[in-house]
Amino acid sequence: MNSETSPKGGERKRKDTGAGEVLRDQVPSVIIQSKSDRYWVAGLISTGKSRIRTNYSKRDDCTALEIVVTLMDPAPVEKFSSYVGVAGRLNPRSKNPKRPSWQSVVTGPRAYRVLQEILPILLGEKKKRAEKALEFFAPDGLRQGRFSDCDVWPDEELLAP
After folding, report:
1. pLDDT at 139 (0 to 100)
2. Does 37 map to a domain?
3. Range(s) of the domain holding residue 131
4. How much is the pTM?
5. 144 near 14, Cβ under 8 Å?
């Protein structure tokens, strides 16, 4: 097993499958191309209906970093998706047809790099969540084992989305 120890203990890498290195190599070194686009993304994450969270994969026994943006208006979700280079879900996610919502999810190394790029611009609790996430996860946005949001953000005040 290829691993390194984080400041809080525990392994930061997965089994030596090379998957993280492959994923990291597939992500460009710069995700959000312009400074104004970074400000837009940071503003949406700081003030919008977004979450910085964990997602566990039982198959890989690995936890991934995720940024999730969910809004009732599909236009900002599409714009966010294009800035960060992922496909947004254009179908409504809500069970209530009168209040549909659209979602975009950024995972793993791409999520890690997006947070690195917008960290200086983020505000408030989202900035604190991003800082903790960047400390907790390896640069591939993954960590071997099962971890919940409470493991990454143990402080009660950081648990709010």
Report:
1. 94
2. yes
3. 19-151
4. 0.79
5. yes
